[in-house]
Amino acid sequence: MVHRHRRTGGAAAVVAALGLMALTAGCSPTGAAADGSGAGDPGDVVRRSADSLVRAGSSKASTSMEMASGGTRVTIRGKGVYDYRRQLGRFEVVLPRDPAGADEHRPITELMAPGALYMKNRGAGVPADKWVRIETRSLSDGNLVTGGATDPLAAAELLRGARKVRLVGEERVGGTEVRHYRGIAGLRAAARAASAGQRGALGVASAKGFSRGSVPFDVYLDERGRVRKLRQQFTVAEANVASTTLLYDFGVPARVLLPAEKDIFAGKIAEQ
Fold first, then answer.
1. In the sheet that 162-173 helps form, which strands lie side by side, from edge to edge?
2. pLDDT at 182 (0 to 100)
3. Which of 8, 57, 165, 218 gets the highest tally of CB atoms within 10 A of its CB?
4. Which residues pair with 239 in a beta bridge?
5. pLDDT digit string (tens) for 35-53?
6. Tens digits of residue pLDDT in 174-207
7. Measured between alpha carbons, how far is 180 from 171 in angstroms, rounded to an integer?
8. What is the distance between the alpha carbons of residues 263 and 129, in angstroms, rounded to a whole number?
9. What does the DSSP 8-state code read for residue 5?
10. CB-count exposure of residue 180 (10 Å: 0-12, 13-18, 19+)
């Protein structure tokens, strides 16, 4: 059983509520294309972006999660690789310093899989060689914010519920020409349209009213309709959470091995 830890004080309390601070350790085409890229109805283009990632196979990714509450702001950063076909990812997540100024925590290794989140260097009484396994169905947000690094495919699948989408303009992200779209994603619609591996978690988030059921977003798609940058605004407790995901180096090897059952911690996580 995984216990969540609570602390008081601005964004630090929000991080605790999420179970994070308990860790001690060329040119754009002009017509619509079959792959979901190019011009066309902005909503349709955005809703197909998750399919474009699956066709790409894999990529590197970096994430940034900013939490602001009560005048306090913290940022959690992650970097890793993701296999969109197998829906598996591996990330190293770096937590901010404690408010008291203690040394930085050791990076947390996170493995993302359909229905589960695995965390190593989880701290709080977990042996250094063990993993903590969390069922994403048990999380009110479907692992969009709990792990401190938004699952890239879950974030893209959320766009299947996109509405009120408009094309902002053409820009560049990491040297790549992209189209910038802005809109709102509905969790309920996203859960209905999601792939089998993501439907359960998004359905739970919708049923529990996470982020009040809708998520404002800005997404930047390349000429193939692939997400290059995605910024989503969540509401968690009394805080605002901004998750930014950057995807690049598509097609790189993304070897992700899930831990054996014997390597998963079965005890309780100590309260702090």
1. 131-135, 116-120, 108-113, 88-94, 72-83, 58-69, 239-248, 227-236, 214-221, 176-186, 162-173
2. 98
3. 165
4. 236
5. 445 567 999 999 999 999 9
6. 999 999 999 999 999 999 999 988 888 888 888 8
7. 7
8. 7
9. -
10. middle
136 belongs to a structural domain:
yes
Task: Quote the number of domains for the chain.
Answer: 1
The answer as to whether 267 is a domain residue is no
**Interval 111-128: pLDDT, tens:** 999 989 999 987 667 888
φ/ψ of residue 180, rounded to 5: -100, 120
Q: Concatenate the DSSP letters of all residues of 143-184 into one string.
A: TSSTTSS--HHHHHHHGGGEEEEEEEEEEEETTEEEEEEEEE
Structure tokens at 108: 């947390």
Q: State the CATH number of the domain containing residue 158.
A: 2.50.20.20
For residues 139 and 147, what is the distance between their CA atoms, to the nearest angstrom?
10
In terms of pTM, does the model score above 0.90? no
Displacement of CA 236 from its chain's centroid (Å): 14
Q: Does residue 252 belong to any structural domain of this protein?
A: yes
Distance CA 109, CA 94 (A): 9
C-alpha closest to that of 225 among 31, 89, 65, 61: 31
**Residue 229 is encoded by which pair of tokens?**
């940058």
> Distance between CA atoms of 204 and 199, rounded to whole angstroms?
9
Tokens representing residue 208 in the block = 């529990």
**Cα–Cα–Cα angle for 113, 25, 120, rounded to 5 degrees:** 25
Establish if 262 belongs to a structural domain. no
Instruction: Give residue 232's domain range.
Output: 10-25+32-257
Question: Count of CB atoms within 10 A of residue 58's CB?
Answer: 23
Q: Tally Cβ neighbours within 10 Å of residue 42.
A: 18
Query: How crowded is residue 231: how many other Cβ atoms within 10 Å of its Cβ?
Result: 18
